[in-house]
UniProtKB/TrEMBL annotation:
Keyword Transmembrane helix: yes
InterPro entries in alphabetical order: Plipid/glycerol_acylTrfase (IPR002123)
Protein name per the record: Transmembrane protein 68-like
GO terms, molecular function: acyltransferase activity
Gene: LOC115816201
Lineage: Eukaryota, Metazoa, Chordata, Craniata, Vertebrata
């Protein structure tokens, strides 16, 4: 009798595990990206040790490390997401520009973009990141090598005036957690990025990645997680996914510097341009199944389908 009960329990456990394992897997896959990030950090520390770098990091010595990591991340982009970048010619070969992008639940598409720019343009795009990233253990060297800053306005202006590219997502963590498959922009009344562009006298280039919300999704839209973030600014909402959906990044036409525009007017203009990219290249609402099938669909056919819809 005990043997039969044990067999039943074992059978029920196997059935439960079989039913739940896909759900467990989709919450574990995002940690693969974290693992890759720490592998990148390990590589940088080994590179630093090999070249006997102490306090000062020379730009030329880190070029090889950046290009090596960019090649590895680009390979991941190609294999896992069939990554495509359209409109790279809009990124200047030299000189500054402010790149404004939509923030996915995990901005892995932006990492792929940075890698592709390093490989094809030979340029390192500086980036503005949330303070949370700077508190991640072990991330200091990675952020320094890839010129990631916390984003005080003066520092952003300095980077642009020094001739660098600078990437920023006005929606930030809020957009990452609370946006959904309808792809709403969640900028609120943020105009700081626009003021940076005006103070620097640089063009603004909008950027959007098709299916970025289907690759990774957040539970931040659930009432509890939203309440916690809105009240305490603590991003505890779980992220799930890691699905090998098709990623296509699109760069819009540069918005030239216009000294007559106020920060509010420029922010509105950039938001409209980014919204136009979303409407042109993303079928709403987003669908994980459709995004997976697009891995086998030619780019021209995908464009025609979205325009028709």
């Amino acid at each position: 009798m005990d043997v039969e009960a044990s067999d039943v329990i074992s059978c029920l456990w196997d059935l439960l595990w079989w039913a739940c394992s896909p759900f467990v897997l989709v919450f574990l896959l995002p940690f693969v990206i974290v693992f890759f990030l720490y592998l990148s950090i390990l590589f940088l520390h080994l590179y630093k040790r090999k070249n006997e770098l102490k306090e000062a990091y020379t730009h030329t010595l880190w070029q090889c490390a950046r290009r090596t990591l960019a090649t590895l991340w680009d390979a991941h982009a190609t294999v896992w997401h069939g990554y495509e970048l359209h409109g790279l010619e809009k990124i200047p070969d030299s000189g500054p520009a402010l790149i404004v992008y939509y923030h996915g639940a995990i901005p892995i598409d932006y990492y792929y973009f940075l890698a592709r720019v390093i490989i094809l343009k030979g340029r390192t795009c500086h980036s503005v990141a949330d303070h949370i990233l700077f508190k991640m253990p072990g991330f200091k060297l990675l952020l320094e090598v890839f010129s990631v800053i916390h984003g005080p306005r003066e520092e952003c202006v300095r980077a642009l005036r020094n001739g660098h590219l600078l990437g920023i997502s006005p929606g930030g963590v809020r957009e990452a957690l609370l946006s959904d498959q309808m792809y709403p922009l969640m900028w609120g009344k943020r105009t700081g990025f626009a003021q940076v562009a005006i103070d620097s006298g640089v063009p603004v280039i909008p950027m959007f990645t098709q299916n970025v919300r289907e690759g990774f999704r957040s539970l931040g839209t659930l009432r509890f997680f939203r309440w916690v973030y809105e009240r305490y600014r603590v991003p505890i909402a779980p992220v799930y996914g890691g699905f090998p959906v098709k990623f296509r990044t699109y760069l819009g036409d540069p918005i030239p510097y216009d000294p007559s525009l106020t920060a509010e007017k420029l922010a509105e203009k950039v938001q409209l341009a980014l919204q136009a990219l979303i409407e042109q290249h993303q079928k709403i609402p987003g669908s994980i199944v459709r995004a997976l099938l697009e891995r086998f669909q030619p780019t021209d056919t995908a464009h025609a389908t979205i325009k028709q819809d």
